Amino acid sequence: MTLPERIQLTEVGPRDGLQNEPEIIPASVKIDFIDRLSQSGLLEIEATACVSPRWVPQLSDAVEVLKGIHRRDGVVYSALVPNMEGWQRASDAGVDKISVFTAASETFSRKNTNGSIEETIERFMPVTAAAHDAGCRVRAYVSCIVVCPYEGAVRPEQVASVVKRLLDIGVDEIDLGDTVGAATPADMDSILSEVGQLVPVQDLVMHLHDTRGMAAACCLRAMQLGISRFDASCGGLGGCPYAPGASGNLATGDLLYLCEGLGVQTGVDRQITTEAGRIIEEAIGRPLTGRTYRADSSS
Ligand code: HMG
Ligand code: MG
Q: Which of 3, 60, 63, 192 minimizes the number of CB atoms within 10 Å of its CB?
């Protein structure tokens, strides 16, 4: 079995993980959570989202969180940014990197960002230019790479055409999102054979949700196909408020456990991520569901 020697993990728990939580979590708790994660060896943490507070009230404290965290040397702290207003807030707060986001499905794009795919990409043009002027890298998410919660199946060619538009406007990195956690390993083959014609597979990031328990299986298949960059969320927190039926991301502990067993290096200390999970678990008042997280918590 051919696997990467090492993978790079972006922890998205503080953003994807928390955006769907109904009870507002104090900024101080989010800061403690991120600070603990920062001690685990993670090299990138998506800390929050500078989106409209009307759309995602839970993350309306984005600036406070970004300004409050204790930045660790070598760790990149990023934030989701949908438009220039978001860029202004993120850059004022000293973000290292931003993530713009669109979708391979028109309906999801409208429900999530009140704009068509093309309108979102037009919004990203000045954002990308301003971020680059400020020396900030730009990640671009493409959601619904397999299934849209409103339109159903999405063809790999649709995904590739949105990736092409994003590359045209100069984003630095493409992150492929299985927003509702519908993918099986076979989808990794079909998507990567299309998108791999536009971007070297080793430069792509895979963002899997674990709604059907398939995320680790997809991750293994993606690694075999040459992917070495993944997003994961502490304890399996997560979900998009505009994607009905979606549950949390591939859990960080599950990804780490998988890689440990396969001899793939991550540089991340699983126990510290478990300790970080406890901070959030206490705040939300219910157990996190990540399987390895649960096993590690009870051992
Ligand atoms: P809109 O309502 O069309 O925006 O939303 P607008 O420009 O008309 O502004 C409306 C109000 O929001 C105004 O305030 C603006 O100032 C304010 P008012 O004057 O009414 O008081 N506003 C902002 N405030 C702060 N920061 C901003 C900002 N922008 C506007 N950046 C918009 C359009 C894109 C802003 C909105 O739809 C939005 O914020 N959407 C974000 C939804 C979201 O965050 N979804 C979850 C993240 S995506 C995801 O989870 C998928 C992913 O994980 C990958 C995967 O799993 O596939 C990434
Ligand atoms: Mg997501």
A: 3
Ligand index nearest the alpha carbon of residue 174:
1
Distances (CA, A) of 58 to 22, 53, 138: 7, 8, 23
Which residues form the catalytic set?
Answer: 240
Q: Is the pTM of this model over 0.85?
A: yes
CA 105 – CA 87 distance, rounded (Å)? 24
For the domain made up of 8-298, the CATH class stated in words is alpha beta
Please return the burial class of 137, using the count of CB atoms within 10 Å of its CB with bins 0-12, 13-18 and 19+.
middle
Ligand nearest to the CA of 139: 1
Distance 178 CA to ligand 2 centre (A): 7
Q: How far apart are CA 79 and CA 93, in angstroms?
A: 10
Are the beta carbons of 246 and 217 closer than 8 angstroms? no
Question: Mind listing the pLDDT tens digit for each residue in 136-182?
Answer: 999 999 999 999 999 999 999 999 999 999 999 999 999 999 999 99
Contacts 24+ apart (CB under 8 A), 110-113: 111/150, 111/242, 112/143, 112/240, 112/242, 112/243, 113/82
Q: Is 52 in the pocket of ligand 1 (CB under 6 A)?
A: yes
pLDDT over threshold 80, residue 263: yes
| Domain residue extents for the chain | 8-298
